[in-house]
Amino acid sequence: MNSLDVLIVEDDPNLGQILSEYLGMKGLNATLRKDGEEGMKAYQKGRFDLCILDVMMPKKDGFTLAQEIRALDKKIPIIFLTAKSMKEDAINGLKIGADDYMTKPFSMEELLLRIQAIMRRTGDSIEKETSVHQLGKYTFDTDKQLLEVNGEITNLTTKESELLKVLVLHKNKTLQRTIALKSVWGDDSYFNARSMDVYIAKLRKLLKDDDSVKIVSVHGEGFKLLVTGG
Predict the structure, then answer these.
(1) Which terminus of the chain has fewer CB atoms gathered within 10 Å of its CB, N or C?
(2) Single pTM value for the model
């Protein structure tokens, strides 16, 4: 199938950008709007396979928008994004026709799994991304969480694998700290930021056998996986 077209309506510009970039990296076509009114205009103009709607938004809230979208298309999958304090409202949202809801903060990986589950239920699917990546002398299998070099295989932890995967998706480009943290840890708290630095150090040690593969720090921004060989 062709790549899924996803409408994201989220008034938090940082989260909206992260969602849009992450789903884009996964091969989905993401359209981002910042409030319910803009979201409805985009929906009427475009053709979407799935909607991700924030509940609390200016001008028009997510529930109202969902009801308006449902009036035009009874089958299009809808996922609500809600704050913890709004959990009860999110459950009520399921009653008006949403397919799922996620409580902030959440991991991007979990969101993708939820989308995949919904599309399977509706008879559609997301094109499977490549799971094996060549990084110089290294072979990285994201599904099996294995890193191989010179015949030696290292079993990566889930966090090591997820972080390296995000770096690979940004290969030779700067990976913003916030995007890395929210993609792998779910939020960018101080504790998680320190934890990520520890995992970056672990990955650097694992990649030490090939000088053409390096994780460099980009001051004030994040990290960059430089691959100059293969």
Answers:
(1) N
(2) 0.58
Reading the block at residue 189, the tokens are 């708290």
Q: How many CB atoms lie within 10 A of CB 77?
A: 24
Place of tokens 């959440």: 106
Q: Which amino acid is at 133?
A: H
Mode of pairing for the β-strands spanning 50-54 and 5-9: parallel
Three-class DSSP category at 147: strand
Q: Do 107 and 165 belong to one domain?
A: no
- CATH of residue 45's domain is 3.40.50.2300
Question: Whole domain around residue 58: which residue ranges?
Answer: 5-121
Question: pLDDT tens digits for the chain (230 residues)?
Answer: 357 899 999 999 889 999 998 998 888 999 999 999 999 999 988 889 999 999 888 888 888 899 888 878 888 899 999 886 666 766 667 677 778 888 888 888 889 988 888 887 776 655 545 678 899 999 999 888 899 999 999 999 988 998 998 898 888 988 888 888 877 887 778 888 999 999 999 999 999 999 999 999 999 899 999 998 65
What's the CA gap between 34 and 141, in Å, rounded? 36
Q: Which residue, of 88, 121, 154, is where some domain finishes?
A: 121
Q: How many domains does the chain have?
A: 2
Query: Do 136 and 180 share a domain, yes or no?
Result: yes
Position 126 in a domain? no
